[in-house]
User: What shape does this take?
Amino acid sequence: MTSTAPEASPSPDTAARPAAEDVLIEVRDVSRIYTQGQLEVRALDRVSVTFAPGEFTAIAGPSGSGKTTLLNVIGALDKPSAGSVIVDGREVAQLGRAEGADFRLRHVGFVFQAYNLLPVLTAYENAEFTLALQGLPKTERRERVMPLLERVGLGQKADRRPDELSGGEQQRVAVVRALASKPNLVLADEPTANLDRKTGEALLDLMLELQREHGITFLFSTHDPLVMERARRILRMDSGRIVADERQGEA
Amino acid sequence: MWTLAWRNLWRHRARTLIVGSAIALSYALFLILIGIEDHSGEEMSAKAEDFVGGALRVEGGEFTAMRTLDHLVPDGVALAERIAALPQVRNVRVEVELQGLLSSPRNNTGADLRGIDPDNWPTALEDLGLAVAEGRFLHPDDATGIALTRTVARELSVALGDRVVLTLSDPDGEVTRALFLVATILDVEPGGFDRIAFTHLQAAQRAANLGDAVTGIGVQLADSRQRFRLQPDLQAQVDQWRPDQNLAVLTWDEVLPELVAMIEVDRANTLVFLGLIFLVVVFAIANTMLMSVLERIREFGLLGALGLGPGHLIRLVFIEGALLTLAAMAVGLAIALAGHTAIATWGIPLGEGGLEYETAGISMVDFSLYSTLIPLHWIRTSVLIFVLSMLASIYPALRAMRLEPTEAMRTWK
Assistant: This one.
């Protein structure tokens, strides 16, 4: 395990940007304001940040700091109140619901904290779900999904329903589903929060290996030290702002 | 999507089975009652056709409206023979229908005298629910013989061999009289045609000074349901053959509009009753689908996050509703076919006396209910029920469509 001192980041929101061709995601001056009764909550407050292709980044911070909201606006699950979000050259901040869904289907893989799988489908069916939605033929879906399920050690459990799998196994199926469609980007919202340390570590190592193999950009929202140990970049958030942008060596 | 929808249905097996059974049973009930309704409608149609003479009837101008002898079909037998040769015509019945006063030395009474050719209508008595009680029916030797029902014979205090006189107005408006000998006494089934009387066609023509004219030619078709389609064709043909005689071709429905109205009212009553039953079922379906959406809000959020757009989510709920309805309808159809077969074979006995009613001068007596399967009616009903069931899924589908994925996943963690 390696841990390095953060790079100097006197003004994290304006951290040095990679060259344009190295940018997969550009978040520019994004604010997200929720109204709760008379109260305005700034979940994101003029956040600007870029992510290069293939980055394995952890977004850390206390609850309510804006980690999940940042992931949601990048994944077009939520619309920012202001600012722009460009993913792979495409503005996604103001996509309509159908366009947003289509964007996620074709470009983004999601792994959530829990309830990731559809309970009535088997592990295999869950894993191939987005491929089926994309309209891929059955044989191609099988060719893509089965090796990944084998890869995560679930080849023999492909026919099991989620309630017949452990929490770690369910998360592995979710990871396979996220990767099977070969997305540009995987957004993982506290994927290890409900797992014990050993299972969490195994899952993270697996995701790291797959990230290396497939060159996919991973963004994690987390406060799990296990994730931060493995991430090459850690964004620290508080009160809707990025307060630190740290880069560290190979995990 | 179909697999997901089908498995979703079985998450709450008991609930799905209960709602599915409600759909299946109400659908089966719908079809069975429509089968019974159709049988009764066809039975009434058949009786109406017997009464009118056929599915179509050729008569003089306004005979049906006026019932007077100045609207006749001249040389009726010759015209009937030409009509009988047309394709799709099964048989013709030439008929003289006279209304007048029958008198005996002791009494008199009103009667509806039919002059018929028994060769063209050998089953006249059976068709009209009559039976020979005494004497012989329209024997060739009884040129002036008359067949009276027991009711009329009793009113006139006559027996076989007695004389009766028919008094009526001829086509010129002159009062004329004709003498008949009672040759037959007929038994009438309860509620049947107890004022009808029969004689030979020629005897009736002579009695009313009609010459070779008749009051109507009943035209029986190979398929009486084609009567509306064939009516204008026959009218055109008759107009061509007899251009100056102002003859009208009517369907039996036009001759007996009261009967048609009664059949329609009867059918409307059944449909309203069934509609109310099915309305309850529609609400049950809507409730089930809504519950199914509301208890899966988190899951709908996940589906949205994975890339199912609003259209996909609506489709998912509709497919679930459609699968539930189709599966239930398949079971319902099997139940309905079994029920129909049993009712068509054995009938549903209604007990002694049965249902008895009379309209348009035609008595309907049913001692048992039977069923007739008219595929078009069953298909129409099935489509209607399927569409209604799908309407029940609209609100739940809209609820699913409006869910914001982030909101759904946050709220229902």
